[in-house]
Design a protein that fits this description.
The chain is of the alpha+beta class and 305 residues long. The protein has 2 domains: 171 residues, Ribosomal Protein S5, domain 2, CATH 3.30.230.10; 124 residues, 2-Layer Sandwich (Alpha-Beta Plaits), CATH 3.30.70. The protein contains 10 helices and 12 strands. The strands form 2 sheets. Strands 1, 2, 3, 4, 5, 6, 11 and 12 form an 8-stranded mixed beta sheet that branches. A 4-stranded antiparallel beta sheet has the order 8-9-7-10. The chain is globular, with a radius of gyration of 19 Å. The protein starts with a strand and ends with a strand. It holds the Pfam family GHMP_kinases_N. This is Homoserine kinase. Belongs to the GHMP kinase family. Homoserine kinase subfamily. Its EC number is 2.7.1.39. Its main location: cytoplasm.
């Protein structure tokens, strides 16, 4: 067994409007773990996006890896983990899902669990509570997923979306637990039918890669954006400005506060320049869908293979 690995997991955006808790898209923003088997636990954060004062016993990576090993009656051996991340915490870019997926892979490697892809989808989605971000981080590309009462995930996997995505990241956090508190407990039937129809049309448009319709239905959500938008800095202004600059559509990324636009590749660079001038308080990044999902490199004599 190798004693050193590099685990790379893409972040993700979820929902894309009305695809609530079921649609995810991986992005080329990454969580990167270099893992070495050692005699004692050590987790070192090497990015500004990561806090530097978390004790091992409270660390998400450690706890999820330990929980995963325990599911298979294994004991987790100690490791030194060096973490780098391009995913800001609590911004709606799948940072927690990426960490969960990475931790499951960590346990898989160092405990020789031999997990299948389906195992990884099931375990990560069960821990997250819904399959949107987790399935996208495992598989890459776009995922449309459902998790049944037994925690088994069924996913339609769409690759090679030919579009660019721009994320507008404000300098504020919004935890999903807080964003869920503003949602209604139930919807009137007619309202729910319209919301469900919009979600169906978004999924169909994504599968058929009809980008004009994707943008239209991204902006048709009735499940969560009407209630969360008041928590999001400049949400309406970004919507309008993005449309004027040529975006197909704009929606919350997950629960927010990040906002994401889909747009034609040919206008992507100019779009970013325009938006940076309009919204100087936001970090604005041009991203592409990640096509690979989680991947692992073995390190032999400090050389990646």
């Amino acid at each position: 067994m190798s004693k050193k690995w590099q685990i790379i997991v893409p972040g993700s955006t979820a929902n894309l409007g009305p695809g609530f808790d079921s649609i995810g898209l991986s992005l080329n923003l990454y969580l990167d773990l270099t893992v070495t088997l050692t005699d004692q636990w050590e987790i070192i954060h090497l990015s500004d996006h990561l806090p530097h004062d978390i004790v091992i016993e409270e660390h998400l990576i450690y706890n999820i890896a330990k929980e995963t090993a325990a599911r298979f009656d294994k004991q987790l051996p100690p490791c030194r983990i060096e973490m780098r991340s391009e995913l800001p915490y609590a911004r709606g870019l799948g940072s927690s899902a990426a960490a969960i997926v990475a931790a499951i892979e960590l346990a898989n490697l160092i405990c020789d669990l031999n997990l299948t892809t389906q195992d990884k989808l099931n375990i990560s989605s069960q821990i997250e509570g819904h399959p949107d971000n987790a399935t996208a981080s495992v598989l890459g590309g776009l995922t449309i997923s459902q998790m049944d009462e037994q925690g088994v995930v069924d996913t339609i996997h769409v690759k090679d979306l030919d579009a660019s995505f721009v994320v507008f990241i404000p300098a504020v956090e919004l935890k999903t637990s807080v964003a869920r508190k503003v949602l209604p407990e139930q919807f009137e039937r007619g309202y729910a039918v319209r919301a469900s129809a919009n979600a169906n049309m978004l999924a169909a448009s994504l599968i058929s890669k009809d980008y004009t319709r994707i943008g239209r239905y991204m902006e048709s959500d009735l499940f969560h954006e009407p209630f969360r938008s008041k928590l999001i800095p400049y949400f309406d202004e970004i919507h309008l400005a993005a449309k004027e600059a040529g975006a197909f559509g704009t929606a919350l990324s997950g629960a927010g506060p990040t906002v994401i636009s889909i747009l034609p590749n040919e206008i992507a660079e100019q779009f970013v320049l325009t938006m940076k001038k309009r919204f100087p308080t936001h970090e604005i990044l041009l991203t592409q869908p990640d096509s690979r999902g989680i991947y692992v490199k073995e390190v032999l004599n400090d050389v990646l293979t």
